[in-house]
Amino acid sequence: MRYQAARCAHRLGILLPTHPNPLSLSHPPPFIPRISPSQGAIRAPYRTVMSSADWTAPLRDFSSKDPPVFEPSVEIEEETLPTYQPEKYYPVRQGEVLDDRYQVLAKLGYGVTSTVWLGRDLRDSKYVVLKIYITGQKKNHELEIYNRINAVEVEHPGSDLVRRLFDYFTITGPHSPHVCLVHEPMGISADTLLQKYIPGQTMTLDEMKSCIRQLLIVLDFLHSAAHIVHTDLQLKNLLLPIPDIKTLEDLEEREVNDPSLRKVLKDRTIYLSTVDNPGGSGLPLLSDFGEARFGDVENSDDIMPNMYRAPEVVLKESWDYKIDIWNVAMVAWDIVSPRHMFDGRNADGIFDDRVHLVEMIALMGPPPARFRERYEQGNWKDLAPIPDISLESLGTDIPGENKEGFFRWLRKALQWNAEDRPTATEFLFDEWLMEGLRRPNTEETKS
Description:
The protein is an alpha+beta fold. 28% of the residues lie in helices and 13% in strands. It has two domains: 5-189 and 243-271, 2-Layer Sandwich (Phosphorylase Kinase, domain 1), CATH 3.30.200; 298-442, Transferase(Phosphotransferase), domain 1 (Orthogonal Bundle), CATH 1.10.510. ATP binds at residue 131. Residues 102-433 form the Protein kinase domain.
């Protein structure tokens, strides 16, 4: 479906993201990063040579301070992951330049597939986020998803509501290559916003609507134009734009003058992720496409966080775009309620598909005949007792007016059969979700 981006966004009361112009920092003299022999680390020969006539921003010197270090026996960051294998992670050093262009400034986070760093694009003099993947992957799935997104030629406002990929390249590591994605910097997640800065950790129904409208516009773009299923919609993957680049400048200066804790080993240094908060404002952009799938092929992977899984995923059957619609209902609920809609844990506190299914029965009613015929196969045996709960009882404390409209809207997505759920556009233009938007006058419409 084609859209005029600005007109559609104006109609829905959505602010398309703006990207601040990057500001240059102070200009210290260039340097060659050095490692103190007392630290026991060596500079490996595979590192990028750090000199280029194309740079418009200066290098920052991280070698003038003696940072605090952990004892080698203390496990930190990615070392604490059960699947950690050091040779799979690229041994990033603060201050090094990757791809003869991006200087590493500070560590932002880590995971089972990558580490994430704040960097500076020395050619364009702007901040970037560097996501460096572990080795052992024949192809980078997230990069393939972004290539599909960037290849879309249809004009659609949702394309501006996805976190941008600026660049990508391959790093030659000591063991094998590493793919690095270069993203635009973002602020805090919607999850962090709710957990740390919103009283009661919930928003009102009216406050939630703007976020959900924007999310559904993104999904319409992904589903109808890019043919992509996100599969992992949750508050931590909705990131707020950074309102002021000064927050990143301050973070960089703190790393130069007061370096983060780290552990220095013979073949690598492991850094603590920065705890500095970059803030954020406005409506969030959708990020993290590591679990996304192409929607124009058959899918049956076990995806989605446990408590967010749609019925067809719980029952390990094939699925399509409509799992994202189910997921939108979960995200909307999490914005206005301090607890997830589904718990799914048994008496021992272990997540149990049988418990999850009976909670669905309690909230949605028994599955219709055609659903049972499709998914019978013994899946309905030995279920736990059906709990005495309803959307209304779980949502008693949800703040806001017209909760009845909210519950009706949710039930559009909470369907056993995926084909009974609305499309992203149909869900967006629901009467309840549109409630409260100002109708543009004739002159505005003409303009």
